[in-house]
Design goal:
Length: about 300
């Protein structure tokens, strides 16, 4: 977008020859692939704010099917620009709590009014257990499975009852061969929007039922903002660290729990997780109705 400003102000001859590589959605993956000589494949899922999570699921399938021993996967996005901010503001998706900018991103809070855009990346290394052990790797968790579904409802609004989310969560449990009793943590997509957070909470309660009472819920966007294409992999990383360290961080800026949120949301202080075998679900959703849920287990 900076290059477009240069085009307008200084003419076509001043546009960088690297503009096309910078514009390509597959640019970041391509650069990493070139640096490390990744010949098993370089792939770029494009599913809006669920892209980072879908990349992890795709990478795991490459390992499961024997196409790769190691996969570097995750998501990133450089999205902060006057045009993108104006565009999301026009959709009424962004928070307008400008007088309290540091506390504007407040998932599940009664007074939430939209998300806060952020930039960043979260990358994880997936590898087969055999390969990891052979190289003496520090293993943080076990990837267990994924669930993919779609809302089929609206380009930008969540389906109110969370039917696509429910389907994705159930598919993740089935793929991971887990029951609801195995789930001791959920990292919610929760972007701090009025509609999305409640719909997701309904879906979590619907899927886990009474077992949601022992599955504390958190959401990283309260402290990190919304990384868009990088959001899903950041949530996955937070889920992995939660079950590795046996502690769930509280939702940032959450003061008053919103009506309709009937799940155990972690507020104010961290929550310890029990010893033994535990699993976590990481939810990621994107404009267009994309629903991606990843499941992780503690490594033992």
């Amino acid at each position: 977008m900076e290059q477009y400003d240069i085009l307008k102000e200084r003419g076509a001859s001043r546009v960088s020859p690297m503009t096309v590589p910078m514009l390509m959605p597959n640019g970041p993956a391509a650069v990493i692939g070139l640096e490390i000589g990744a010949m098993a494949g370089v792939h770029t899922p494009v599913s809006a704010c669920a892209s980072g999570a879908e990349a992890i699921g795709y990478g795991a399938e490459m390992i499961r099917t024997g196409r790769a021993d190691v996969v570097i996967c995750g998501g990133t996005e450089g999205c902060i620009h006057p045009l993108t901010i104006a565009a999301f503001a026009a959709m009424r998706a962004l928070s307008t709590l400008h007088e309290n900018a540091a506390g504007a991103s407040r998932p599940f809070d009664r007074d939430r009014d939209g998300f806060v855009m952020a930039e960043g990346a979260a990358i994880i290394v997936l590898e087969s257990e055999e390969f990891a052990k052979a190289r003496g790797a520090k293993i943080y968790a076990t990837y267990a499975g994924q669930g993919i579904a779609a809302d089929a409802h609206h380009i930008a609004q969540p389906e109110p009852e969370g039917r696509g989310v429910i389907l994705a969560m159930n598919r993740a449990l089935a793929d991971a061969q887990l029951s609801t009793k195995d789930i001791f943590h959920v990292n919610a997509h929760a972007t701090s929007t009025p509609a999305g957070d409640v719909a997701e909470a309904k879906a979590i309660r619907k899927v886990l039922g009474s077992d949601s009472d022992h599955a504390p819920v958190t959401a990283v966007k309260g402290v990190a903002g919304h990384l868009l294409g990088g959001a899903g992999s950041l949530a996955a990383l937070a889920s992995i660290l939660a079950i590795k360290n046996r502690i769930v961080p509280p939702v940032g800026n959450l003061v008053n729990l919103a009506d309709g949120v009937d799940v155990d949301v972690v507020m104010s202080k961290p929550r310890e997780l029990p010893a033994g075998d535990i699993a976590a679900l990481s939810n990621s959703f994107g404009f267009g109705g994309h629903d991606i849920v990843l499941a992780f287990r503690n490594y033992s």
